[in-house]
Specification:
Chain B: This is tRNA (Adenosine(37)-N6)-threonylcarbamoyltransferase complex dimerization subunit type 1 TsaB. The structure holds 2 protein chains of 2 kinds. Helix content of chain A is 44%, strand content 19%. Chain A is an alpha/beta fold. Chain A has 2 domains: 6-125 and 303-321, ATPase, nucleotide binding domain (Nucleotidyltransferase, domain 5, 2-Layer Sandwich); 133-298, 2-Layer Sandwich (Nucleotidyltransferase, domain 5). Chain A has a 5-stranded mixed β-sheet, with helices on both faces. A 5-stranded mixed β-sheet of chain A has the order 8-7-6-9-10, with helices on both faces. In chain A, a hairpin with a 3-residue loop joins strand 7 and strand 8. In chain A, helix 8 (216-231) packs antiparallel against helix 9 (238-263). The longest helix of chain A is centred in the last third of the chain and has 26 residues, at 238-263. Chain B has 2 domains: 3-95 and 171-186, Nucleotidyltransferase, domain 5 (2-Layer Sandwich), CATH 3.30.420.40; 102-167, 2-Layer Sandwich (Nucleotidyltransferase, domain 5), CATH 3.30.420. Chain B has helices at 35-50, 69-86, 95-103, 153-157, 159-162, 174-186; strands at residues 3-7, 12-18, 23-30, 59-63, 90-93, 109-114, 120-127, 130-138, 150-151. In chain B, helix 1 (35-50) packs across helix 2 and helix 3 (95-103) crosses helix 6 (174-186). Classes of the chains: A alpha/beta, B alpha/beta. The A-B interface holds A 41-43, 46, 48-49, 51-52, 54-55, 58-59, 62-63, 73-74, 88-89, 92-93, 95-97, 99-101, 103-105, 172, 175-176, 220, 223-224, 227-228, 231, 328-332 and B 34, 36-41, 43-44, 54, 69-70, 73-74, 76-82, 84-86, 196, 198, 202-207, 210, 212-214. Bound molecules: zinc ion. The site of zinc ion has 7 residues of chain A, from helix 4. Zinc ion binds at residues 114, 118, 139, 141-142, 273, 306 of chain A.
Chain lengths: 343, 215
């Protein structure tokens, strides 16, 4: 696709200012500025801090992405931007940037759904998506199971969390165990020295016949377990607690993902989002996919966490599909439904 | 010189084009909740009305606040983005300076806008062009009015303490912002980069120990 248009993608739905540049499904730049360090002491992302950081970071991050790709602004053929879901004030900075670039360059704008972009990004690494595929998206902000007949046109929600996102549960359990924010990588690391079978933590909604998730009860169960041991004056083996908690999360995630594949007779599963970097999730998903005859696709970690390349990838699909561009009046929609792939 | 100016730091979404001598076009919509949706169409309308293509603009100016942050950032991000793609400079001018300039006053006065949370953003001027103190954020009763007239929407919002002066103009209309910018540029006065004046820290509390779930 040497003559496919150059698409610049902008992602600001949470704490990462991400700029990606693609031509077709070829990744040319994926530059990220994160404000995570500023949020860490608050134990979670502070929306106003994130919004301020996006405004500070946008221009330098775009410049860095253009430099990395060896391009000038005027080379860009289309702009794609996360229009939602996400933090309202954070999204607004990205959408304002995208509109100003589209207006200034005289190129089309594509406002896209953040979750669909998490699916589309895998094409930059593993080529075109099988149609259909099932996608499991897990991060600090989302836990969703999707049926994806066509990522540019048609994405169907099969299930999502009824309370906490999976990544949120990691953060909260990390706090209980005295591990730093964000909790995911720290729990993953601690769990390597522990046994996932040490403590039988509950699996929320495991066999309830839905494809929804629940992690709030698990989080509370871990806190109760730790508090009971502390009250009894017993020491806590953090690696065992971390491993057993992690096992409960990934057991439910992978089990439901494969239930979805079976129910819809789909043979390709894609896992994305920050939690897709979890080593136990990758291992158990691979094991269960192999057993079920399902092909597993997981983008490399830099494409799993929020980034601009995913937005550019979906934008590129929209251009290729001949989708009508967005107007320069589109709002940022913090609760954009997944059924709306583009606005 | 062709200055495109806009401000989104108050409920007014306002844009104007100035050729160094006069305002060629100005549009303003009052809608405190839709800055992100309204700004670009407003800019497009102004360009169309003046029959000027965007690529002929030589400088972009945005009101840099102080003002409620979500809207404020839309204007400043747009200024940076247009400047970057057009290859022209972008500047920020204090939003209260545009209110002050629009008043046309030649005597000392205050300009004050709504900061929400029962506070106001304000600054003191010796005349329409000259800020001598501020900007600050304070409760209306704590603003040292000292008998000076007060312009800006805060005067009509808190007439008992800020009412002297009647509050006109209520907003930083972009025509005034553009004219002020053109004046300063022509005089060779260095302008600030398009960066926000916040005056408040983000609301965020460092958490203590995790809450116990068992009694
Ligand atoms: Zn995400």
């Amino acid at each position: 696709m040497a003559d496919a248009p150059l698409v610049l993608g902008i992602e600001t739905s949470c704490d990462e200012t991400g700029i990606g540049i693609v031509r077709g499904h070829t990744l040319l730049a994926n530059t990220i500025a994160s404000s995570m360090d500023e949020h860490a002491r608050f134990g979670g992302v502070v929306p106003e801090v994130a919004s301020r950081a996006h405004l500070e970071a946008m221009t330098p991050t775009v410049d860095a992405a253009l430099t990395a790709a060896g391009l000038k602004f005027s080379d860009i053929d289309a702009i794609a931007v996360t229009a939602g879901p996400g933090l309202a004030g954070a999204l607004l900075v990205g959408v304002a940037a995208a509109k100003s670039y589209a207006l200034g360059l005289g190129v089309p704008l594509y406002g896209v759904n953040h979750l669909a972009a998490h699916v589309a990004v895998d094409q930059l690494e593993h080529g075109p998506l099988p149609k259909p595929c099932v996608a499991l998206l897990v991060s600090g902000g989302h836990s969703s199971l999707l049926l994806v007949p066509d990522v540019a046109e048609d994405v169907i929600s099969l299930g999502s969390t009824v309370d906490d996102a999976a990544g949120e549960a990691f953060d909260k359990v990390a706090r209980v165990l005295g591990l730093p924010f964000p909790g995911g990588p720290h729990i993953d690391r601690a769990a390597r020295d522990g046994s996932g079978a040490a403590i039988a933590f509950p699996r929320g909604k495991i066999d309830d016949g839905t494809l929804d998730f629940s992690f709030s009860g698990l989080k509370t169960a871990v806190a109760r377990w730790v508090e009971a041991r502390e009250a009894a004056g017993e020491s806590i083996h953090v690696p065992d607690v971390a491993a057993s908690f992690q096992e409960a999360v990934v057991d439910v995630l992978t089990r439901k993902a494969l239930q979805a594949c079976k129910k819809y007779d789909v043979h390709d599963l894609l896992i994305g989002g920050g939690v897709a970097a979890n080593s136990r999730l990758r291992a158990l998903a691979q094991e269960r996919c192999d057993a079920a005859g399902v092909r597993l696709r997981v983008p490399r970690p830099g494409l799993c966490t929020d980034n601009g390349a995913m937005v550019a990838a979906l934008g590129s699909d929209l251009v290729a599909a001949g989708v009508r561009p967005s107007t320069l009046q589109i709002p940022a929609d913090s609760s954009l439904p997944i059924t709306t792939v583009h606005v | 010189m062709l200055v495109l100016a806009f401000d989104t730091a108050t409920p007014a979404v306002t844009a104007a084009l100035h050729d160094g001598e006069r305002v060629l076009a100005e549009r303003t919509t009052i809608d405190a909740r839709r800055h992100g949706e309204l700004l670009v169409p407003t800019v497009e309308q102004v360009l169309q009305e003046a029959a000027v293509p965007l690529r002929e603009v030589t400088a972009i100016v945005a009101g840099s606040g102080p003002g409620p942050y979500t809207g404020l950032r839309v204007g400043l991000m747009t200024a940076q983005g247009l400047a970057g793609t057009l290859g022209v400079p972008a500047y920020g001018i204090c939003t209260l300076d545009a209110v002050a300039y629009g008043s046309g006053l030649t005597e000392p006065f205050l300009a004050a806008t709504d900061a929400r949370r029962k506070e106001v953003f304000w600054a003191r001027y010796s005349d329409m062009r000259t800020r001598v103190d501020g900007p600050f954020v304070d409760r209306p009763a704590d603003v040292p009015v000292n008998g000076l007239p007060v312009v800006g929407a805060a005067a009509t919002l808190y007439p008992d303490v800020l009412g002297d002066g009647g509050g006109a103009p209520p907003y930083p209309y972009a025509g005034a912002l553009a004219a002020l910018a053109a004046e300063r540029l022509a005089a060779g006065v260095p302008l600030d980069p398009p960066r926000p004046i916040y005056l408040r820290r983000p609301d965020a509390v460092v958490p203590g120990a995790p809450k116990r779930v068992t009694a």
